[in-house]
Model the fold of this input.
Amino acid sequence: MRDSFNRTIDYMRISITDRCNLRCKYCMPQEGIEKVSMSKILTYEEILRICRASVTLGINRFKITGGEPLVRKGCPDLCREIKQIPGVEQVTITTNGQLLKDYMPKLIEAGIDGINISLDSLQEDRYRLITGGGILSETLKGLDAAQESGIRTKVNCLLQKNFNEDELLDFAEMAFGRGIDVRFIEIMPIGFGKPDTGLSNEIVLQRLQAALPQLTLDQSTRGNGPAVYYAIPGKPGSIGLISAMHGRFCESCNRIRLTSQGQIKPCLCYEDSCDLKPALAEQRDERLVETLRDAIGRKPSGHTFEDIKTVERRSMVEIGG
Ligand code: SAM
Ligand code: SF4
Done:
């Protein structure tokens, strides 16, 4: 469906849990966030009803996220069931990769179309520090397994000044050595994210171009989102820049978000959301479709991350990154 700014909305990010087995510093405090009781979290049946209703409005691509989606039991079964809904073209997942290796066979069997792995450091100690206890080798095993399966695999990395910015070229080497897409995402002022600690993608691009003069803009479409890709002619792999803070990609925004508690967020930046719970309480799905239509109609023209007063206060695990 088209929103009031004539953008086609065909992509939904679904947070299936606000829980996580890591504590990335920009996302969750070390002590975690207040636990939401499972009775408030959407059941898989409710998520499936929302997906079916969304398909009637032209949403045909779904990303499963969280929190960490693989900590919720049955995540691959949910992926399979979404994939089987007539009209669904793509189901992908975003994960920190800690449990990925063991889940790969089930995700393949579920028919998943792509896996994004969040990975901010290729150094064991740093990885442990930034993730609040994560084990780098587990995520790398997950990455290997995902690549070996042939499923489209991308790595997402947040570069921070004076912390992991010196790994920029190691990640570039990973992209072209492994032949995968590595994307650098600017930190947003959401949850515990402090944009002034993040590296701007303008600087990332300058440093990449200085080190890799063969790098050229690649205009082939590589995903659902706002990344701008750069490649080296003749080499597999690419580098994507998602300039969430400094880039202005709102005019081509194609997405809405479903939180784990059943709220539709028209835009990541603002607190505004539409509660689907009352519509879910009804037997028939007409009201569900209407509420989704409403939420899409409420999509603002763009974000105002630069004006902190306007920005969403909930953390990324609650709203689904
Ligand atoms: N746990 C999964 C993972 O880490 O991929 C899925 C959920 S996580 C919230 C999704 C993505 O959001 C991660 O790539 C993470 O780096 C990113 N993220 C979290 N907080 C952020 C912030 N303040 N600014 C930008 N990205 C953020
Ligand atoms: Fe967990 Fe992902 Fe947030 Fe890290 S970014 S704390 S892995 S939800």
In short: The first strand starts at residue 11 and ends at 15. The CA atoms of residues 1 and 57 lie 5 Å apart. The domain at 11-156+250-319 is CATH 3.20.20.70 (TIM Barrel).
